[in-house]
């Protein structure tokens, strides 16, 4: 804790780096996962392959994934964001797919029956009804990503992981904790924030 | 009388199985038409083909004289009100938004939608001040179904389709809803096509009843015609043996008739409505008026066709 208290600017800078990587990763996962999840819910044939591929990618250890990506994207923030986004993708896509698929058939029929176009049905009925599950997926993805974003430091993307790796290298427990505790705090704060959002969209 | 709806040899096949073989009937403007028949007879499928929630495989459907297949399905549905059994209210919208949804999707201004929604809620007996801001989950089943009716009325369609709208509400509330629907229909003169397996409901509400069997229309006629001029034995058996009408066993037929001197009684004075129906099914009568009495030439009761319809309508179907 000594380090945290005596280096507030460093903590702030690392926190911003950490958030950039995690936020970027979740954002990409959302941008890719949302349409894919909707497609998986709509097109029965796509559901299994899409979730299988996302599931397999999820199983690749993150360090190995970074190693594969470095030749393509180089060291740094870009690789970290792309690499981490792959882990959020499965969770987000799955929750979007389940959320959209779980809208009760009579409600869809009513929407169609009163003359909604496909787009209106999606925007006014399916998406709002799937939203609680989508936000729940987003929350899990964000918390998870903030945790594993510590590894981003290993490939030069900064963040609280920097302190952890430096602490390991110099056998400095205070430094390791200085990286760990803010990461955990960030994850918890993010969890609470999204929980609040989840509750808002649910009511 | 102008035709609001006309179905010509409409059919629906799913692969090898046939849901509807031949639906041919028409509904006049302002008429209340009930479609009845045993489960699996294709009545719901037929209803859903009218607004093309289900696309017919064959045949022609004319809505206000226009071929439904020639109009864009979305435009067609916006001209037709729709109430389904499972209510189908949007759980994330307020009651007001549910009702005005049919207007908002056509891009009408918000103020108009709101005003219209309030008018419709008023019409179905839900004071908007109390109910407009609520979510469907905060309403009873009967109230939710009223909202469903209000939504179907909101866009002021000429034709309203209803698929067993009251099947899930308990008998007492159901009767209330039926009375209100009858009142609304009288006030608005909308054409209503109403699918039900509840025969008393059909007799209570309908001007005309279409009887389905195995995916085809067996008879389309007034309640009196069904009773006194059944097209096939199936129709009279369906009426006489239907589970929903078993309660008529406990209803005295003479309570609906008028006292008179009876020359040749068809049935004993204490005969129940069910016995009358069964006698009709068995063909044991000559005139359309049914005579009840103990002995020839004695005091008895005469039952006109309309009395019988009234009697059947008064029965309450057992819970589904």
TrEMBL record, chain A:
InterPro entries: ABC_transp_perm/SBD, MetI-like, MetI-like_sf. It holds the Pfam family BPD_transp_1. The chain crosses the membrane at residues 20-41, 53-74, 86-108, 129-155, 175-194. Residues 15-194 form the ABC transmembrane type-1 domain. PROSITE patterns: ABC_TM1 (PS50928). The keyword Ribonucleoprotein does not apply. The keyword Hydrolase does not apply. It is a multi-pass membrane protein. Its main location: membrane. Keywords: Membrane, Transmembrane, Transmembrane helix, Transport. Belongs to the binding-protein-dependent transport system permease family. This is Osmoprotectant transport system permease protein. It comes from Tistlia consotensis USBA 355. The lineage of its organism: Bacteria, Pseudomonadati, Pseudomonadota, Alphaproteobacteria, Rhodospirillales.
UniProtKB/TrEMBL annotation, chain B:
InterPro entries: AAA+_ATPase, ABC_osmolyte_uptake_ATP-bind, ABC_transporter-like_ATP-bd, ABC_transporter-like_CS, P-loop_NTPase. One of its GO terms (molecular function) is ATP hydrolysis activity. It holds the Pfam family ABC_tran. Keywords: ATP-binding, Nucleotide-binding, Transport. SUPFAM superfamilies: P-loop containing nucleoside triphosphate hydrolases. GO terms for biological process: quaternary ammonium group transport. The keyword Nucleotide-binding applies. This is Osmoprotectant transport system ATP-binding protein. Coiled coil: none annotated. The keyword Nucleotide-binding applies. Residues 5-239 form the ABC transporter domain. PROSITE patterns: ABC_TRANSPORTER_1 (PS00211), ABC_TRANSPORTER_2 (PS50893).
């Amino acid at each position: 804790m000594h380090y945290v208290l005596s280096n507030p600017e460093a903590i702030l800078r690392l926190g911003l780096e950490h958030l950039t990587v995690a936020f970027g990763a979740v954002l990409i996962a959302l941008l890719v996962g949302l349409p894919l999840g909707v497609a998986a819910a709509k097109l029965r044939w796509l559901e299994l392959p899409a979730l299988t591929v996302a599931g397999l990618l999820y199983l690749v250890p993150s360090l190995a994934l970074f190693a594969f990506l470095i030749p393509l994207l180089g060291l740094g923030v870009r690789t970290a964001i792309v690499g981490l986004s792959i882990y959020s993708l499965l969770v987000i896509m799955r929750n979007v797919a389940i959320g959209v698929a779980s809208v009760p058939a009579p409600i869809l029929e009513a929407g169609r029956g009163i003359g909604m176009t496909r787009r209106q049905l999606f925007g006014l009925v399916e998406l709002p009804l799937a939203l609680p599950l989508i936000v729940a997926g987003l929350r899990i993805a964000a918390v998870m990503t903030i945790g594993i974003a510590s590894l981003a430091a290993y490939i030069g993307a900064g963040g609280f992981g920097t302190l952890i790796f430096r602490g390991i290298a110099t056998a400095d427990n205070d430094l390791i904790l200085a990286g760990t505790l803010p990461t955990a705090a960030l994850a918890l704060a993010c969890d609470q924030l999204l929980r609040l959002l989840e509750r808002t969209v649910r009511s | 009388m102008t035709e609001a709806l006309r179905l010509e040899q409409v059919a629906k096949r799913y692969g090898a199985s046939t849901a509807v073989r031949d639906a041919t009937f028409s509904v006049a403007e302002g008429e209340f038409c009930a479609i009845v028949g045993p489960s699996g007879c294709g009545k719901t499928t037929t209803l859903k083909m009218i607004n093309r929630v289900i696309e017919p495989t064959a045949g022609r459907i004319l809505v206000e004289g226009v071929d439904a297949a020639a109009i864009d399905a979305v435009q067609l549905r916006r001209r037709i009100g729709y109430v389904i059994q499972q209510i189908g209210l949007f759980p994330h919208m307020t009651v007001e938004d549910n009702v005005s949804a049919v207007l908002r999707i056509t891009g009408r201004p918000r103020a108009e939608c709101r005003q219209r929604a309030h008018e419709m809620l008023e019409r179905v007996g839900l004071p908007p001040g109390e109910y407009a801001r609520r979510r469907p989950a905060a309403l009873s089943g009967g109230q939710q179904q009223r909202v469903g009716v209000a939504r179907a009325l909101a866009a002021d369609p000429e034709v309203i389709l209803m698929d067993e709208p009251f099947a899930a509400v308990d008998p007492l509330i159901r009767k209330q809803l039926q009375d209100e629907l009858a009142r609304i229909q009288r006030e608005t003169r909308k054409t209503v096509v109403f699918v039900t397996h509840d025969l008393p409901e059909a007799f209570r509400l309908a001007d005309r009843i279409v009887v389905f069997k195995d995916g085809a229309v067996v008879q389309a006629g007034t309640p009196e015609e069904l009773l006194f001029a059944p097209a096939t034995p199936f129709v009279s058996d369906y009426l006489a043996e239907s589970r929903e009408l078993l309660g008529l066993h406990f209803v005295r037929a003479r309570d609906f008739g008028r006292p008179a001197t009876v020359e040749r009684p068809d049935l004993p004075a204490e005969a129940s409505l069910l016995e009358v129906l069964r006698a009709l099914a068995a063909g044991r009568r000559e005139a359309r008026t049914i005579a009840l009495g103990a002995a020839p030439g004695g005091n008895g009761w005469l039952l006109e066709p309309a009395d019988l319809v009234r009697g059947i309508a008064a029965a309450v179907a057992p819970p589904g």
